[in-house]
Structures are given as structure tokens and as C-alpha cells.
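Fold sample X.
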Amino acid sequence: MIAQEAVKEKSNEIPALRSMLKDKDIEGCIITADAMHTQKETARFIVQDKKADYVFTVKDNQKNLLMNIKALDLESIPPVYETVDNAHGRIEIRRIRCSSELQGYIDFPFHKQVALIERIVERNGRTSRELAYIITSLDKYRVCPERLLKLNPWTLDNREWFPLGQGRHL
């Protein structure tokens, strides 16, 4: 984390992020943020004004964007990278599938790739599965799937800064 700022009364985190980054020299950095910050103006600000890149989680607050990503049916393609962690009484598998097929098709500033991240957790004989969608200004030549999985804000939101265990390219 490079900064922290209290949100003003009668406001929210969306403008606070731009305000917080306004005076920071973040050129060449990668800004990760949760779904609340998946906003066109925030993406434009980060890339155009600050000369940085973004990795955002996509959820229902951007319904059309989420619908377009889901329409790619990324679940039907094989993952390109996965990690497996066996610790704390659980087995956790993370898989990533990436696509640049929406580039030039959707209206979201500076996007280069979207991805589907799947997390499967087995604990005490029970299995859970979660999916997260992301969008980024980083193209496949600047960030490999392994790195994109590590940068994923959904992972960061859960305080797991990097996938644990051994990773493998599939």
C-alpha cells in the first residue's frame, strides 16, 4: 500500500482513490483495486494522467462489462496457469484463464486483457469454488498469466498477497 486516506463525509471511495493518487509519482506502477474502483474515469486517470496501469476486479456494479466478459465463456477454455497450496488444513487451487478478445470491442479505457480466476478450496471433506473476473490495461506481452494471478485484486482483498505453494504453467 502506498497511501491511505479517510473518506470524506457524504462521499465514497471512488473519488478518494483519484484524490489520493493525484500527487503521487506512480508512473510505471500497477494499481490494483477492487470492484468499486472499476470505473472508466478511474481507469482513464491511472493510465492517461498518471502513466501507470491498472488491474481491477469486475462485478455487478459494471453489469455490461461483466456480461461481455462472461460472454467469452472463459470457463470453457483450459487454464494457462495454476497454483496449488496445501497448508492450514486445506488444499487451495487457483487457476487463471486470460483473453484479449474484447480489446477494441468494449467501452472501457485502455483495457488490454480480461481474465477469469477460479479458486477451489478443499477443507474437511468440503469443496468450495469461487470465480472472479478482472480487467487490466496490461497486455499479454507485458504481464504473463502467472504475474496477473499474483496481481489480482481479489487475491489482495483476501489478504493473500501472492498465491502460496507451487505454480505451474498449463
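Fold sample Y, listed below.
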Amino acid sequence: MKRFLERQGFWNEARDQALRHEVARELADAVVRAEEAGKVPLEWMFDDVFEDMPWHLQEQREDLLG
């Protein structure tokens, strides 16, 4: 795709480097935000997976939470 865009005049090395720099910066920022957020509660691993949690996962969640 890169070669195609270059041949069509839509892409060049300067744009490529700028995009790579922007992506690296956004990724570094995301890592910092994730690290600053702290630990995630264990019970969250059961959330947002199923609309209706299967019985066996419900049991595992209850066992985890005591």
C-alpha cells in the first residue's frame, strides 16, 4: 500500500516519518496514562465480556470475591 501511495504521489518519506513519530508519541502517552491509572480491581476481568454471565463464571467471580 505504501508503494502504491508513493507512486500516486499521496505519500513520501517526510509523511512516513511524521506519522511514525506521531504514533510513537501517542503510544508513549497511552502507556503513561495506563501506568498512572493504577491497579485494576480483579473482579473487572468478569465485566464487559458477556451480556449474561454464564453460571460457571458467576461462580468463579463469587469465589474470587469471597
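Sample Y note: The radius of gyration is 22 Å.
Also: The chain has one domain: 2-65.
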